[in-house]
Design goal:
heterodimer; A: Alpha-Beta Plaits; 5 helices; 4 strands; B: mainly alpha; disordered N terminus
Chain lengths: ~180, ~400
């Protein structure tokens, strides 16, 4: 691993009000590739960070429609086209008996879309390594510290300027650069 | 508590402007109803039952809503709870308004005709349950239960406004626990007695849930419209926020899916089993223009609202949501029209007589509405001393 490969800069805070303020200032300073790490969900943090709503629902609705269509085709083609067989005097195909399967097929693909879409396309889980844990203070984000991290990938990132900026945030401590 | 959200009291000029309108609607409705009675009294009683059960189902929905919020000690809904509690008290008006139905039993219900029942094996088998005395006793008991629940829940809430006692919240939760099953069981039996027995040969075990679910959807829709009406007059516009509308929209959506689920389950099982004594209900609703009404219900009550309300944006939209709420109230009327009127007009919709339905609907609705406005101006619009009020004011959807 290269010596000078830097993942980004972090700053630790002691309370949720401080991190809300910090997140807002980082966003207003023009950074876009930054993240917050907290021991518990902090209300309004997503607004403070300026996070947009997930695109996942649009992916999921496509899965739902696909499930509905496939379920419809499956029942119509097997029952009324490929292998015609009258069962219990019912029509070869009717929406009445198709509906439960349509519902199930739609829900199945919706659930698949939601779970695998979330994992594969959107949130990057499962993740076995995260550079943020190269700093000793990061172990406390499951306990009593709130962290802001700004990635080196951010176009505005500059090792000295960004650390100085983080240092200037109210309540910031343990500001440091971390290796990737 | 410092009030930083504007007045919690309704402005008297708003009530004074709305009251004459409601009174006008009620008077016009009653005049229409009286004309209807003298022009065709059989048709009138069917129309009256339609109007009566429509508003009854909304109050049952309101009572259920209030009790669920009380039982779960919900925080988000506190700002709209007083409005729901006021709709709930419509029962006090609906008690005297039931009397005309007692006079119309012979027009409405085949099982009151003893000579028909004597010749009919099925009906004479059911006569132990379906007879005028027992019917009247049951309805009186149901109305008593509903009046008791609504009176208790309403007075706990109003009393807390003045004494600020958090125990009132506890008491309401205590009453709601047995109250919810009591309400649902009595409402199920009421729908069986008043609506299902219109076709006494037919039965469906899903019936009670179906009627109850329809009332639930429409009550949420009514609540949205009441809140929007207040907002348009600049009342509670900072108290009931888009977050609360969003939640009401979600509830309306969920209740509507529940309605559709129950309605479909009922239809599906009857369709699949294909037994004559069960299919008669749906076969009768495929005749002539009733088929169109049936399809309108499937599309307008479920498919359309489902697709429209699925998106987050429509539930938070200041115009879309009330429009959908008004539509749900309309389609609920279609639902009850479709349940009640085919018994009277089996060959198709009696277009020339629909004004009777509109008249009775307006008569009972206007009376309830006038009562609603009177109640509303007597108390604060929000339970001001509720221990969860602060949380409700701050509420946000994640």
């Amino acid at each position: 691993m290269a010596e000078n490969k830097i993942y980004g800069a972090i700053a630790a805070f002691k309370s949720d009000t401080e991190i809300l303020e910090a997140a807002r200032k980082v966003r207003l300073a023009g950074y876009s590739k930054f993240d917050c790490h907290t021991p518990f969900p902090v209300h309004h943090l997503d607004q403070a960070m300026g996070m947009k709503r997930s695109k996942l629902p649009y992916f999921i609705i496509c899965c739902t429609i696909a499930g509905f269509t496939l379920g419809l085709l499956l029942q119509w083609w097997t029952g009324a086209v490929d292998y015609k067989l009258v069962i219990g005097g019912k029509p070869l195909f009717a929406l009445e008996f198709a509906t439960p399967i349509l519902f199930e097929a739609s829900v199945l693909l919706t659930a698949f879309g939601a779970v695998f879409g979330m994992l594969g396309l959107f949130n990057g889980l499962p993740m076995f390594y995260h550079p943020i844990f190269n700093a000793e203070i990061s172990k406390r984000i499951t306990d009593d510290r709130f962290l802001v991290s700004i990635e080196a990938k951010d176009p505005q990132f500059d090792a000295t300027k960004t650390t100085e900026f983080l240092q200037s945030l109210p309540g910031a401590e343990e500001v440091q650069l971390i290796e990737a | 508590m410092a009030n930083t959200h504007g007045s919690y009291q309704i402005k008297s000029e708003v009530v004074n402007r709305a009251k004459p309108i409601m009174l006008g609607v009620a008077v016009l409705g009653w005049v229409g109803a009286i004309i209807a009675y003298f022009s065709n009294h059989d048709q009138f009683f069917s129309a009256y039952l339609f109007g009566y059960y429509y508003w009854l189902s909304l109050s049952i929905g309101a009572t259920f809503f209030v009790m669920i919020q009380r039982q779960t000690q919900a925080e988000w809904s506190v700002v709209v709870r007083r409005l729901a509690e006021t709709v709930m008290t419509h029962f006090w008006v609906l008690v005297p308004l039931f009397v005309p139905i007692l006079f119309g039993l012979h027009s409405l219900y085949e099982w009151t005709h003893t000579e028909v029942v004597a010749k009919d094996k099925l009906l004479s088998g059911k006569s132990g349950y379906l007879n005028v005395t027992f019917f009247t006793i049951r309805v009186v008991v149901f109305l008593a239960i509903w009046c008791f629940l609504s009176w208790k829940l309403y007075s706990y809430s109003v009393r807390q406004d003045t004494n600020g006692d958090p125990k009132e919240t506890k008491r309401a939760a205590w009453l709601s626990a047995p109250g919810i099953p009591l309400l649902i069981i009595s409402a199920s039996f009421a729908s069986i007695d008043l609506l299902m027995s219109l076709q006494p040969h037919w039965y469906s075990t899903m019936w009670g849930v179906y009627i109850f679910a329809g009332g639930g959807v429409s009550f949420i829709a009514l609540l949205i419209l009441i809140a929007v009406w207040l907002r348009s007059n600049g009342i509670l516009d900072e108290v009931i926020t888009v977050e609360h509308y969003h939640d009401l929209g979600k509830l309306m959506f969920a209740f509507n899916v529940f309605w559709a689920y129950v309605a479909f389950s009922q239809y599906f099982l009857i369709w699949y089993a294909n037994m004559p004594e069960e299919t008669s209900f749906f076969v009768n609703r495929k005749v002539g223009s009733w088929l169109g009404v049936s399809l309108l219900l499937a599309i307008g009550h479920f498919i359309g609202p489902f697709i429209i309300l699925l998106a987050r944006g429509t539930k938070r939209h200041p115009v879309f949501l009330p429009v959908m709420a008004a539509w749900m109230l309309f389609i609920h009327a279609v639902d009850h029209f479709w349940i009640i009127m085919p018994v009277r007009n089996p060959n198709g919709v009696a277009w020339g007589q629909i004004w009777m339905n509109i008249a009775t609907w307006a008569a009972i609705g206007g009376t309830c509405g006038f009562f609603f406005l009177t109640r509303l101006s007597k108390h604060s619009l929000v339970p001001v001393q509720d221990p969860f009020l602060e949380e409700s004011l701050e509420f946000e959807n994640a």
